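Need a sequence for this fold. Nothing fancy.
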């Protein structure tokens, strides 16, 4: 335990994994700042820093990234470059005992939901009445809003329920209050995140209430964009599509991870949906909201995925032409149903399939982007980069989707919206000039 406040020069928090982890880090940083600490997020290290690592334990690559960071910070602690090292989050929730043995240089390991324990182990005073206050690590004009945690789905390959437990919704009034505070602080775009956002409210209210929540949030004065991510395709709440059409500040954008299209693979994955229903859902979404941008994710190389299954997936992607698409390879996770399945796809073939799928999507993305040349889009400026201001349309989420590079002939304000004429396109980027 570090009990001398004089030593708490600065606490440097590093976040690995998804946007949901980022929200957790921001709440920890808010609590640390309330304890009169100097708090920074992923800032270049200074001698005497205390480092806190928020880890990811989702798949092997993410776990290894967190472990590599911990090892690097442990070495810096050994050489006296930093004063302390604390690790928490999904990885240490799942592998605490193993980490204690392998990397004993860490001062303390914590699991998820450990803000109070972390602060008290640092010898600081925990301000209970300020729990939930956030120190934003994103640009001040957008923020993620975590509406729930945990998951009740039974996907065969996913370790999240083992780490996070059952689905737990955040009460809607808490979310509305938090959102109003964020908007008052200058946030113009809220991005709803969860393990399964379509399940929101069922545990608290006995019914799914994503529609009601989005209705309330989109009514907040000053909120320009409300974006929805992590929607599960099975039992998708179609009524939110009508809300998208009714509310001008709900982005015509939907993140809906399908994971596969082959019925045998979907059955092994325990996704609760088949190919026919997946196709019908996509058709319904595009009929109801014709200009919507659909983002999806596919998992390739699941045990039992045959060449024919993968070819069916390739054909499906070429046919449907998703606006945005991500791919990850199967990662065998201990204690999941898929971990013990036979007919394992070799790692090399998994990687080859992922590259094939992304190659197909790359051409689709270029084709769609070329169609935008000569059109005018509303663009939110995120940052200045070289000779361009870099921003996004309503059809793009931060970090994972396309960006718009706007010529810097005019001085633009970060966090403001502009009409931009699209003058060029690349595989995953657009180029344009600001009008007016």
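Here you go.
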């Amino acid at each position: 335990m570090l009990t001398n406040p004089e030593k708490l020069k600065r606490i440097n928090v590093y976040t690995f994994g998804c946007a949901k982890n980022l929200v957790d880090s921001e709440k920890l940083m808010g609590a640390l700042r309330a304890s009169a600490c100097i708090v920074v997020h992923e800032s270049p290290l200074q001698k005497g820093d205390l480092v806190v690592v928020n880890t990811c334990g989702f798949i092997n690559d993410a776990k290894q990234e967190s472990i590599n960071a911990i090892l690097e910070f442990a070495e810096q602690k050994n050489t006296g470059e930093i004063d302390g090292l604390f690790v928490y989050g999904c990885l240490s929730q799942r592998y605490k005992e193993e980490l204690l043995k392998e990397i004993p240089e860490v001062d303390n390991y914590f699991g998820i939901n450990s803000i109070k324990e972390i602060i008290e182990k640092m010898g600081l005073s925990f301000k209970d009445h300020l729990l939930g206050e956030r120190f934003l690590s994103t640009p001040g004009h957008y923020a993620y809003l975590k509406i729930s945690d945990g998951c009740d789905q039974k996907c065969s390959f996913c370790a999240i329920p083992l780490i996070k437990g059952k689905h737990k919704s955040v009460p809607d009034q808490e979310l509305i209050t938090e959102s109003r505070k964020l908007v008052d602080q200058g946030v113009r775009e809220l991005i709803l995140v969860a393990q399964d956002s379509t399940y929101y409210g069922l545990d608290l209210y006995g019914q799914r209430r994503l529609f009601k929540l989005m209705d309330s949030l989109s009514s907040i004065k000053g909120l320009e964009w409300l974006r929805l991510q992590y929607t599960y395709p099975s039992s998708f709440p179609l009524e939110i599509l009508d809300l998208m059409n009714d509310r001008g500040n709900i982005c015509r954008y939907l993140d809906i991870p399908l994971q596969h299209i082959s019925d045998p693979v979907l059955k092994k994955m325990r996704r609760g949906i088949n190919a026919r229903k997946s196709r019908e859902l996509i058709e319904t979404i595009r009929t109801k909201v014709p200009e919507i941008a659909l983002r999806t994710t596919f998992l390739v190389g699941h045990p039992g995925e045959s060449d024919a299954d993968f070819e069916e997936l390739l054909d499906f992607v070429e046919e449907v032409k998703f606006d945005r698409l991500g791919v990850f390879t199967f990662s065998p996770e201990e204690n999941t149903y898929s971990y013990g399945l036979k007919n394992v796809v070799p790692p090399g073939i998994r990687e080859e399939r992922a590259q094939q799928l992304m190659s197909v999507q790359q051409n689709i993305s270029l084709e769609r982007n070329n169609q935008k040349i000569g059109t005018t889009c509303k663009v939110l400026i995120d940052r200045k980069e070289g000779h361009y201001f870099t921003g996004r349309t309503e059809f793009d989420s931060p970090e994972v989707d396309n960006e718009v590079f706007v010529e810097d002939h005019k001085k633009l304000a970060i966090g403001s919206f502009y009409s931009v004429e699209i003058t060029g396109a690349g595989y995953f980027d657009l180029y344009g000039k600001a009008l007016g």
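For context: Residues 347-370 form the longest helix (24 residues).
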